[in-house]
Amino acid sequence: MRDLLKFMNVFVDGYGYAGVASAAEVPKVEVATREFNAAGMSGPIDVRMARLANVLAAKLTFEGFDPHLYEALDITEGSTIPFTVKGSTEDGDGATHAHNIKMRGFIKVLDEGEWKDGEGVPLKLDLSLRYYKRERDGVELFEIDQENMVFRVNGRDQLAEHRANIAR
Predict the structure, then answer these.
(1) pLDDT digit string (tens) for 86-144?
(2) Whole-model pTM?
(3) First to last CA, the chain
(4) CA angle in degrees (0–180, nearest 5) for 2-9-63
(5) 88 CB contacts (<8 Å, ≥6 apart)?
(6) CB 88 within 8 A of CB 6
(7) 161 — phi, psi (to 5°)?
(8) 68, 62, 71, 75: which is closest to 112 by C-alpha?
């Protein structure tokens, strides 16, 4: 049995939402590709383009109304909010592992869904991210900073040489 998520917590702008946050959909990392075909090949292949194919996005779900979440909704251009998701997993031999996801971006959609008398009102936030870092037990798995042309995988900067080539 591999790491099973046992507990998690979400932080928005440093404010913790234990007991309020109920779900986190972390960013999908999709590398851009281009189809390539040339003489002597029997068919096309995908070639990686050293960049992401999509805008980094995440979704957070909270149960109930919390005014701090509404205070974080800043639509001013250039303003970003730090978001952190922390998880604790346990594997088959009982060892626990700390998972840390750091993100920075803005709230693109604040969705209170449908209100029904006597039922909870989940608050869903769709985030557009500028930065994403994923760690397990303090070891960096990914660090992506699109604006600064940083794409690190397992501690190796995939774009360092490209940045040097264009004097960045």
Answers:
(1) 999 999 899 999 999 999 999 999 898 888 888 888 899 999 999 999 999 999 999 99
(2) 0.87
(3) 44
(4) 115
(5) 5, 6, 7, 8, 96, 97, 98, 99
(6) yes
(7) -65, -40
(8) 62
